[in-house]
Write a structure and sequence with these properties.
It is built from ten helices and 18 strands. With about 325 residues, the chain is of the alpha/beta class. The protein has two domains: about 200 residues, Rossmann fold, CATH 3.40.50.1170; about 120 residues, Rossmann fold, CATH 3.40.50.40.
């Protein structure tokens, strides 16, 4: 029986067209695909239905309500299709694919995010290969999770990061191997793929309020600067530190600002600024000082995935203590334990 895929076009570069102000989201993706996929090529592809959102977005404008829309759409059509493809802008694709991994758990079919660096309307676009590759991969019954496919690389959605704005190799998975590679043949690493433990779970709670903030350490950061950031209304913060999770341990006022925030119920998670690596707060005294101030280590989770994990847990109403415990546990394959 021929498999059928549900495609969601949210906007992004893949469907953009030039305007006087630069590339901007444009509608009628189906007509563009019909133009790029002649009938003899289309015959070799899975059947698909494409839904185009009424409000197309440049992914720089992504909001939590967009995540809820995508997740709800997939949940509503889950039983009717064999797989799903989400066409999305590249700038925040790693955030959205991460968020879907927490909202859609224990899947028994693929959800594949993709897009392009150059619009489909241009002669040199990478969009067609990404689209066709994602469409074919979305039929593979071995994949039971949210993934990101780009330029032949298949990555776990909550492990991917955008690394380059100028190359077709826009995305990589710095702390976890690729799940597969599409060259002449499509090869999957079966040992890395998530195996569903229970029935699919749809966690569609997604607060529209900004729940999480991101703070980055820099040489000379002051307690006053940090305190002002942590006094913002967000309930949780990611603090991007040096190396394996280190921060200045010779500044009592700065450490006191962190301690006051965590004592007041703020959740502060330590992630490294390094492209590759994990936080181990006890490796150096400078990291141990943060732990003593109540900061929780986030291991090798990406900033995008931790941002979405915290937003998800807060949206579901978990207590501060529960969230601090769950930060160090993998709930969707987002970290290495």
């Amino acid at each position: 029986m021929t498999k059928k895929i549900y495609i969601i076009y949210t906007g992004g570069t893949i469907g953009m067209k030039p305007t006087d102000s630069g590339y901007a989201p444009s509608g009628n993706m189906q007509a563009l695909l019909d133009e790029k996929l002649p009938p003899h090529v289309r015959q070799g592809l899975p059947d698909f239905d494409l839904v185009e959102y009424e409000e197309l977005i440049d992914s720089s404008n992504i909001r939590p309500q967009n995540w809820k829309q995508i997740a709800t759409d997939i949940a509503d059509h889950y039983e009717d299709y064999d797989g799903f493809v989400v066409l999305h802008g590249t700038d925040t694709m790693a955030f959205s694919s991460s968020m879907m991994s927490f909202m859609l758990r224990n899947l028994d079919k693929p959800v594949i995010f993709t897009g392009s660096q150059i619009p489909l309307c241009e002669p040199r676009s990478d969009g067609l290969e990404n689209f066709v590759g994602a469409l074919i991969i979305a039929t593979d019954k071995r994949i039971n999770e949210v993934c990101l496919y780009f330029n032949g690389r298949l990555m776990r959605g909550n492990r991917a990061r955008k690394q380059n704005a100028y190359l077709f190799d826009a995305f990589d998975s710095p702390n976890f191997p690729w799940l597969g590679r599409a060259d002449i043949n499509i090869e999957l690493n079966d040992l890395l793929l998530l195996k569903p433990e229970n029935k699919p779970e749809f966690h569609l709670e997604c607060s529209e309020d900004t729940q999480v903030g991101i703070v980055q350490l820099f040489p000379g950061i002051t307690a006053q600067w940090l305190e002002a950031a942590l006094n913002q209304p967000q309930k949780a913060f990611i603090i991007r530190t040096y190396g394996t999770g280190n921060g200045p341990d010779d500044d009592p006022a700065l450490l006191d600002a962190l301690k006051k925030a965590t004592d007041a119920g703020k959740i502060i998670v330590n992630l490294t600024q390094c492209h590759r690596g994990a936080v181990h707060q006890g490796s150096y005294a400078a990291g141990s000082a943060l732990a003593k101030a109540g900061v929780t280590g986030g291991l090798d989770t990406t900033t995008e995935a931790m941002f979405c994990k915290l937003h998800h847990l807060l949206s579901k109403g978990h207590s501060t203590q529960e969230i601090r415990e769950l930060v160090g546990k993998s709930i969707a394959g987002e970290m290495t334990i």
